[in-house]
Amino acid sequence: MNDNMFSNAQRAEVLTQALPYIKQYVGKVIVVKYGGNAMIDEQLKQQVMEDIALLWLIGVKVVLVHGGGPEISDLMKKLGKEPKFVDGLRVTDKETMDIVQMALAGKVNKSLVTLLQMKGGHAVGLSGMDGGIIEARIKDERLGYVGEITKVRAKPITDLLEKNYIPVISTVASDHEGNSYNINGDTAAARIAGALGAARLIMMTDVAGILRDKDDPSTLITNVTIPEAKQLKAEGVISGGMIPKVDCCIDAINSGVRTVTIMDGRIPHAILMELLTDEGAGSMVVGENA
Q1: Cβ neighbours of residue 151 under 8 Å, at least 6 residues apart?
Q2: Least CB-packed of 153, 169, 236, 243 within 10 Å?
Q3: pLDDT (tens digit, 9 = 90+) per residue, 95-106?
Q4: Catalytic residue among 35, 69, 125, 265
Q5: Selected catalytic residue, list 51, 130, 186, 264
Q6: Order of all β-strands in the sheet with 123-127
Q7: Would residue 213 show up in a list of annotated catalytic residues for this protein?
């Protein structure tokens, strides 16, 4: 629908319908995990930043947690280093970890901060190493400096939220010996959301959500409780790369996050659809008694 077809009255009606949802989330913490195709496609990236800036402007406390796997791989290739993976996780030797840090905490993080500010938001870029936000240890010797989170320190993030900034956090961490670690973005977002007691965690991915038939988007399961999710895993409905995502959802809810949504980041303005409309977007995972 173009601007001419969308009257001022219709615009006003849309805003009025969003009002109950706006009231529900003003002053609440929403954590958005961002990555995948929505990060690669420039137009989608602009729209995601618009959504986050809009939420911030209406008083929602948004925390953006981001990965950047394709950017890491691109930089590795430019520097003559071939990416290697074991069980879907990047093998990260010392040299690769330096590249991860450059790509995530440098290029990707600062480009997202700049975009948010261009859209009218006030953002500050951080890595999990800043202020000791994420502490980690080696997850598996075969993977090198891939980290398992041992502690999340929420205070640097809450300090920024209280000063009315959007924290933009790259998923690298450190330990007490000064080692740096590459952290899975979904895991980091779930742990950060739990530490903040966030009202919502939104995990943007490359699929519509949890599908009863992985090849048929029309079989989207829009709401699932933790016991139902465990049953779907046992039945093989939740399988492959969706298993760790759903496990992260369950961990976040068990840590105090009210609801977690796995959504298709390739859909324009999916975040606003999820938070500010009746229809929503993706699959919402909730606690047993929600």
Answers
A1: 132, 134, 135
A2: 236
A3: 999 999 999 999
A4: 69
A5: 186
A6: 123-127, 166-170, 61-66, 29-34, 200-205, 259-264, 283-286, 223-225
A7: no
